[in-house]
Amino acid sequence: MAPHTEQLTRPAVRLEGLTRSFEGRTVLDGVDLEIPAGQFVALLGHSGSGKSTLLRAVAGLDHEVTGSGRLTAPERVSVVFQDSRLLPWRRILPNVLLGLDGKDAEQRGRAALAEVGLAGRERAWPSELSGGEAQRAALARSLVREPELLLADEPFGALDALTRIRMHALLRELWKRHRPSVLLVTHDVDEAIVLADRVLVLEHGRIGLDLTIDRPHPRSYRDPLLSAYRTELLGALGVVEDTD
Amino acid sequence: MTAVTTTTVTAAPAAAPDERPRTRRSGLSPGRRLPAARLAGPLLVLALWAAASAAGRLDPAAVPAPWTVLRTGVHLWTDGTLAGDIATSLRRAGYGFAIGLTAGVVLALASGLSRAGEALIDGTVQLNRAIPTLGLIPLFILWLGIGETFKIAIIAIVVYIPIYLNTHAALAGIDHRFVELAEVQGLSRARFVREVVVPGALPGFFVGLRLGVTGSWLGLVVLEQINATSGLGYLMFQATNYGQSDVILVGLVVYGIFGLVSDSVVRLVERRVLSWRRTLSS
Known about the structure:
The structure holds two protein chains of two kinds.
Chain A: H1 2-7, E1 11-22, E2 25-36, E3 40-44, H2 51-59, E4 66-72, E5 77-80, H3 92-96, H4 105-115, H5 131-143, E6 149-153, H6 161-178, E7 181-185, H7 189-195, E8 198-203, E9 206-212, H8 226-236
Parallel strand pairs in A: 3-7, 3-8, 5-6, 6-7
Antiparallel strand pairs in A: 1-2, 1-4, 8-9
Helix pairs in contact in A: 4-5, 5-6, 7-8
Chain B: H1 2-11, H2 40-54, H3 66-78, H4 81-113, H5 115-130, H6 137-144, H7 148-172, H8 176-184, H9 189-227, H10 232-241, H11 245-273
Helix pairs in contact in B: 3-11, 4-5, 4-7, 4-9, 4-10, 6-7, 7-9, 9-10, 9-11, 10-11
InterPro entries (chain B): MetI-like (IPR000515), MetI-like_sf (IPR035906)
Keywords (chain B): Cell membrane, Membrane, Transmembrane, Transmembrane helix, Transport
Family (chain B): Belongs to the binding-protein-dependent transport system permease family.
C-alpha cells in the first residue's frame, strides 16, 4: 500500500487552461484539472460537450486541432476506444501485443488475456469474438503496456446492458490490481457513479462539477445512498428527475 | 423450394409463419455451396455441343465436334507444335505479368505512402490509364521493334494499371481509426506500414491482381494475333487462313485453361492470405 500513498502525492495528469476549438467553435474553454496518480475519474457530459475532445487531447491524438494551454500526462498512456479496434487481420494475441517489443512480450500478452478472461482465445480472429469479448481483448491490449494512465472513451457504450455490468466489475478489478490513473469518458451517469471515485461534469467547455463519490466498492446500482449523487449529477447535466 | 416458400408468405401473409421454420434457408446468405458446382454449367454446354455434333446439327467446318478438337489437340501436341507455341505464349505472359506486378506494387507503395510519391506518380498513372493500352501498340513497335520486348512491355502495362489502382486505393483508404490506434500504441512509422497499412491494403491488392491476371491473357491474345510469328495466337491466326476451325478451338481451349488455372491460383493464394476474412463466399 505504501507506494500507492506515495504516488498519490504527485498528479498524473495536469491541465492548465486547456483550450480547444473546431472551426471557430470553442469546445474546451480553459479547462483546469488535476488527476492524482492512481485515481479513478469519470468524465460526464452531453454529447458534443467536448468530453472526447478532452480525452483525445490528453491522449495526444489532436494534432490538427487549434488550441492552447498546458498539459502534463504520464509517459505510458493507454487508450480504450468505444469500438474494440482490433486489427481484423491479426489474431487476438498479436493484436494485444501490437507495438510491444521484448522477449517476455508474449508471456505478458497471455497473462493479460487471462486476466480479462480470454485465456485460450489467443489464436481466435477478432471476427470470431462477441462484442464483450472484443472489448475485453482491447482492455488486455491497453493493460499489457502497464499504463500509468488509462484513457477510456465510452468503452462500454456499444455493449448490451448485461455485458456492460460484467465489464464494469472487470474494469474495477483490473484497476484495483494495477492502479493506473483512469479517465473514463461516459454519458452514462450510473456507470460513472458505480465505477469512479471522482466524477466530473463538463459543461460549456469547463469542468462544471467535481464530485467525489465516497462509497465503498463494489457498489450496487441499487444502493440508495448513491441516488443523491445521481440527482446532483443529473442536475448538473440539466436533467430533472421525476420524484414520486 | 425457396421460391415456393416465399410466394406462400407473400401471397398469404396471414398464414401461420412458423409452420416450417426449420426447413427454410437461414438468413440472406446464399447457403452452402454444392460440391464442384462451378463445373455444372461448363459440363452442360459441353454435353449440348457433343449432342448437337453427333446429331449432325452443326456444320463441322464452323464448329467441329468435341472429339475432333480433342484429336487435333493431341496431334498438335505430339508433333511438338502446340508445346512450343504454349511455351512461347507463357513466357511472354509470364515476363509481362511479373514486370507489371512488380511495377504496380512498387508504384502503389511509393504513391500511397508518401505525399511526394503521390504527387509524382498518381497523376501520371491516371493519365496512362486514360489511354487504352492496346492503342500504344503502334508506338511501341516503333520504339522497341516488333520482337518480344514490345509484347512484354505492352502486357506489363496492361497488368500494372489495375494492380496499381486497386492497391493505391486500398493504401489510401486505410481506416483512420487504425491510424489512431497505431499512434496510441506507439508504433514506429515502419511498423505502422508493415503491421497496419500493408495488411489492410491486401484485399484491394488482390482485386487488382485478379484483374491483372485477366489483363495479361487479354493482352497476350491481341498481341499474338496481330503482331506475332510464333505463339498460340499465331497458331490460331494461321488456322484461320486454312479454315482449320478445330485448331482455333484447340487454341481457345488452351487460353481458357490458362485463364482458369491462373485465376484459381490467385484465388487460392487470396484465401490463404486473407483467411481472416469471413465473407459470403466462405
